[in-house]
Specification:
Elements: E1 9-12, H1 17-28, E2 33-37, E3 50-53, H2 59-66, E4 71-74, H3 86-107, E5 111-115, H4 144-161, E6 166-171, E7 173-175, H5 184-193, E8 199-201, E9 204-209, H6 210-223, E10 229-232, E11 235-238, H7 239-250, E12 257-259, H8 261-271, H9 286-292, H10 301-307, H11 314-327, H12 333-342
Parallel strand pairs: 1-2, 1-4, 2-3, 4-5, 5-6, 6-10, 7-9, 8-12
Antiparallel strand pairs: 9-11
Length: 343
């Protein structure tokens, strides 16, 4: 659908998990939104948005999308858990961001809000919480996805040097409703709810509600100074703790088998076919295991101080997520009923 209100805000990757939630939050504020969409538009069905078909690899489509825009939220990216996908993540995450920056400068966009990732920042030392002072990853020892998000931010910094007003946000592991595809972490939750994960590993991650992330990003877009950078984290929880919460909410029995990290790392070459999330992509790869043994402390102190950012409790996020999955028939009937009762 289109709007008669002049477009002031553009969202790239608008049909993804974060993008779809961001569009909804902007519309709730009364903003007119133009959505750059590559393929599937399901996440935008029924919303009053102007859709521009294209992608970050196509400068002409970026020109059409950004024409007349005041603010661009650059959310489009591809996530990879493989060590062999540098060409793909470079093309979308790095070159795509370079194209976005160039289009913003050409079209006179007032502000760019760039969605980076916690993975763009160096995690070590692990006994000191990660904050915005951490350097961007550079070494080839880091996975391709991590390096691509760091390189993408370098493109944004080059734009700042050319006069672009830009801010950067670093979400951690986003989960939450309106997860249509579903996302990688959404697939993890569904696999737990449907008993498709035979075993857990001794590791964890910082999980954050996608709605809190987009709220923080909007506030950064509206009031943060040019060049500002904000970590938008939530709550660290182990996979065992996450599975226990899923069991409480859905009634699905959590996996009782849990491998120590060293054993999981040794078994990656042989056991990935036992933990595939969607029939294609395994949960446990060398990249995902590295993430699960990353820094447990991710500080959102700066975002709280400057933006009033306060992530909601993890259980609330999980309850809302499974309620949404239930309403959209993404989980089995017995789990849908249990999720409604838990609401």
């Amino acid at each position: 659908m289109t709007s008669d209100v002049p477009i002031r805000i553009v969202v790239t990757g608008a049909a993804g998990h974060a993008g779809g939630n961001l569009v909804r939050a902007l519309l709730a504020r009364g903003q007119a939104v133009r959505a750059l969409v590559h393929r599937n538009q399901r996440a935008l069905q029924g919303l009053t948005v102007e859709v521009v078909e294209g992608n970050v690899g196509d400068p002409a489509s970026l020109q059409r999308a950004f024409d007349g825009a005041e603010t661009v939220y650059h959310v489009a990216a591809t996530i990879s858990l493989s060590l062999r996908e540098w060409p793909l993540v470079e093309a979308i995450n790095v070159v795509g961001t370079r194209n976005v920056v160039a289009a913003c400068l050409r079209c006179g966009v007032r502000r760019l809000v760039h969605f980076s990732s916690i993975h763009a920042l160096v995690q070590e030392p692990l006994d000191v919480p990660v904050d915005e002072a951490r350097p961007l990853v550079e070494s080839p020892r880091y996975p391709p996805y991590d390096r691509s998000k760091a390189a993408a931010e370098q493109e944004v910094r080059k734009g700042l040097e050319q006069g672009l007003d830009a801010v950067v946000v670093y979400p951690t592991g986003m989960i939450g409703p309106y997860d249509f595809r579903p996302s990688h972490f959404g697939q993890v939750l569904l696999a737990l709810a449907h008993g498709r994960l035979p075993a857990l590993v001794a590791g964890g991650f910082d999980w954050v509600d996608v709605r809190d992330v987009v709220e923080g990003a909007i506030r950064a877009g509206e009031g943060a100074p040019a060049g500002a950078r904000y970590l938008l984290s939530g709550h660290w929880a182990s996979l065992r703790e996450l599975a226990a919460l899923v069991e409480e909410i859905t009634g699905a029995r959590a996996p009782r088998l849990a491998f120590p990290m060293w054993m999981a790392r040794l078994g990656v070459p042989f056991g990935t076919h036992f933990t595939r999330l969607d029939g294609e992509h395994p949960l446990y790869t060398s990249v995902s295991l590295r993430a699960l043994r990353g820094n447990r402390g991710v500080s959102h102190e700066r975002a709280t101080r400057d933006l009033g950012y306060r992530p909601r409790p993890l259980r609330e996020t999980l309850e809302d997520t499974f309620r949404w999955f239930a309403e959209n028939e993404t989980v089995e009937r017995r789990l849908r009923l249990h999720a409604r009762e838990a609401a």
